[in-house]
């Protein structure tokens, strides 16, 4: 049974006043709040279990190594993958860079990379740089005016351009729209393209089964999944992952080093140079344990109820333009009010304790596509309730009156 009050009580940050008002946190697309178990796992690690991992012969180091590798298993289980297919990175950004850099020797000026205008900059710029290094062509999938993909058009586009690489988001960070990945990934696979899915936004809400999804690479950020900042992950189908050139080099990722030559460790260790963010990995496993202790279906249903409630209320305000698709959405509402500046709306809302984001959301090509400079984004997660929506809408109406 999904108990929203119990869930809210698990998140200490939600219990505070901001500007004298109860915090209404609607910025989970930027980063989620953390349950108490994640905060205590971090504290516990530094207070008691702190030691560097791997190679240490003392008890603390062995315990830290065990907890660290157990955490890899916990997160791998969440995605239904094996621990050897999971590389720790410092975020989704680094995970995409790792892949894009690792593919440099596999592409040339006959290659085509396909991305889309819906992407976060993190899933655009590394591919632009890869195209620059290799001479590959960089193309964008056609996007409908409303920011949704027409799947048939995308499939035709892929068949026409036969890409070597396809990188696409699972859900838009700006709009929340969920991509219908199946037909797009199938089309790419028919041409043996290497496929990367940016799961930074979707991994929390959709809890994807990655082998079933069928992409070669999937990236995510722990801090958008109730976990700590400074940690992300890269899933790679083992053969694809193993075929990437190493990204960073140094300690931890080596088997042997002489002054003349280095032998790397096996995948995934060869992609993890240097001392990892051990506390974050262990705390992230606590976040995953928290999530999986709840029923996936009831979390999703709750999130959709709150999203639909908010969408309906927002639609009722004259002068508001909503850019997000109201179907197949992870729970993000992007909007503007007449020609008011989104920063002004976000700043006024903050006075009421409402945390939303405004601007281009690291998706400038999407903003250009929509013909706007930016918008206000209210993004929801499992801990939001009806009262959050009511407070948000009431505050928004007051702010808009002030702006009129
Ligand atoms: N992709 C998407 C869709 C995102 O929303 C984000 C974060 N806003 C990223 C990539 C980059 O994630 P990070 O900053 O955690 O590396």
TrEMBL record:
SUPFAM superfamilies: PLP-dependent transferases. Keywords: Pyridoxal phosphate, Transferase. Its EC number is 2.8.1.7. Residues 24-392 form the Aminotransferase class V domain. Its cofactor is pyridoxal 5'-phosphate. It catalyses: (sulfur carrier)-H + L-cysteine = (sulfur carrier)-SH + L-alanine. One of its GO terms (molecular function) is pyridoxal phosphate binding. One of its GO terms (biological process) is cysteine metabolic process. It holds the Pfam family Aminotran_5. The keyword Ribosomal protein does not apply. The keyword Transferase applies. It is an enzyme of class 2 (transferase). Catalyzes the removal of elemental sulfur and selenium atoms from L-cysteine, L-cystine, L-selenocysteine, and L-selenocystine to produce L-alanine. Belongs to the class-V pyridoxal-phosphate-dependent aminotransferase family. Csd subfamily. This is Cysteine desulfurase. It comes from Pseudoalteromonas arctica. The gene is sufS.
